[in-house]
Structures are given as structure tokens and as C-alpha cells.
Amino acid sequence: MKSPTIRAAGSKDIPALLEIEKISFSTDRLSRRSFQNFIKPGSHDLWVLGDEEVIGYVLILYRTGTNLGRLYSIALLPEFQGKGYALQLLAFAEKAAAAKHCVYMRLEVNVDNAAAKKLYEKQGYRVVGNIRGYYEDGSDALRMEKRIHSSAAQLSKPKPYYQQTTEFTCGPASLMMAIKTLKPDYEMTRREELQIWREATTIFMTSGHGGCSPHGLALSAWQRGLQVSLYMNRSDAPFLDGVRDEEKKAVIQLVHQDFLAQIEQTGIQVFIHDLESEELDAILQTDHPVIALISTWRLNRNKAPHWIYVASSDDRFVYINDPEPIEDPHLSQTDFQQIPIDKKMFREMARFGQKRLRALLVISDRNDQSR
Question: What pTM does this model have?
Fold first, then answer.
């Protein structure tokens, strides 16, 4: 018997997709509007199984600017389950993601769905985390992952993750993740997040509340008992090129000079020179936690400065923990934790503004002599 065809979904398939969704899931169902969006071009693929009759589908989401694919949903009509069609859809989805240079496929599965978990484990997926209260009914999910590109490393145990609670505290969130990696007993709390921001803020920025300067974050890490090496390609006050108001510029300059004066009283190491590709790669591959300033343009088409935590790195990819708040209802923490990004892409991403500012902080224990 000929296997049903897998093809891209179209508008004529929406009634069948809604019926499959209704039969397959009691909560967290995709709506008509969602399916209408997913059949349009975008950072996703929606495939259906069936020729004249649609009997199943698979939906993959891609985080823009990254090398990550996420299996959002896979479903079959009950009478076609247990016949190998789910494996067919899964294998097709993995090939589609690999063709888009994704190095990992990730997914969430209900902790009580033993059959689905067994299916994924059989195909090489491994459990890498647990998400409490993930589903609408309050049940938990397992986060699973499979490497689908041999050039990527098998990821180590997930690093600490913290999602920023305001639009301006990406720096504190990233620093807290780095500290938590070195000090497992360290508590990542909103109070601590806001305290670090108060210590490290530039006061003003292009608009709204100021972000955190590299020097301010270095001081915050030092004050918490850590050694810090700060690598920058410029010595002037950061973020001035996006500020027009002269009074705001004067305040930022004054804050910057104060940070420099404080740093002179510490053991913080500051290196200022152009970071070429080889040196940048060497910094990223250090055994110590690294936080880096990036432009988010390639992630969300926003040219804002943004701090991220470099969770790990290998020969081809950098894996980042992005503390950015999740605004898309179809994205989850899975799309923000240990995200693989091609190193060439990351080198371009890790610059900000007209002056192409680079800033990286390497955090280590003061008793560690290997830095």
C-alpha cells in the first residue's frame, strides 16, 4: 500500500486540521487563526499527511536568527495511529529542519503522555528539562531534544536560566545566570535583578529607562565576590551614539566616569582593543561564564542593545541563554535557552550601534587561577 503524501498545508486543509486538533487535544488547541497564520510564509513549517484526505499534520517553529527547530505539534486521526505515520511525519520534520541548517530539534511533551515520550526516545530524543504548569490545564511538560546535525556538540546539562521581568533588565538577568553557574546556592530573584540594574544602569538610553553598561555589570559581579575580565573594542562611554539629548549624554558620561573610577579600586581586568574573530572565539570557548552585548536585529528586527549569557560554545556554534521576555504565544522558554547560533552569525550579532561596540564579560571565581 502506498504511503500517504506529506505536503505543505494550504487554506483548503484548515477544516481537516481543525477536526484533527479537536479530536487529538482537549486543551492547548490551535485556533483557525493560528492555522491561517501557519500556512503563510514565515519562521515555521506546517505539513499535512494525506492525499485526498488529511489524516495528520506536523508543525515546526524556527527561532529567527538561530539554528534551532522546535516541534510544536504532531497529530493523527485516531484510526491512523499505531501504523508508523507518526514516525513518518517526525522523520520528515527533522529532514526539513536540517535542510534549514538547524542543529537541534526540540519539543515539549506532557509528562503523563507515556506513548509520545516513548516514541520520541525511540527516535533519539532525550529529556533535558521539566517545565511546570506548561499546559492550559496546569500539567507539566518534559523538554526533549535531539541533535540533527553532526557538526554540533551534544549539549551538556542545561545552564541556569532566568527570564528578565522588565524590558530593561537583560543585563542583570544575564549576570545572574552567570553567577548561578559558579555559585549553585545563589538565588536569582526579582529583587536581585532590580538591585543589579540600580548598580549598573546608564540612567538614560535611546528611550525609556537606561540599560546596563559593561563597566556597571563588571562592578556588580565584583561586588558579589567574583573575578571579572571585561573585553571591549572602545574606551569611550557606551550607547552615546543613539542619544540626541545633550543633557542625557552628559549624565551618561558622568555615570561612565564614575564606573571607571570605581573599577580602578578593584581587581577587574579591562582589555580594550579590536576583538578579531580568533580572539572572540577563544573568549567564547573559555570554561568560565561569559555574558555578551548583542544587537537583537537578527532575532526580532529590533536594533536595541541586549545582554545575553553564553551558555557554551563549540567549533561551529555558540549556545546562548536569552533572557528576553516571551511575547509570541507560540514560543516557549525552549526557544530561549541554550539556543544554537552559527559563529559567523554571532560575530555579526555581537556588535551594537554605529560604532560597532563589542563588549564581553568573563566571570570567574577569584580563587580560580586558570583564568
Answer: 0.89
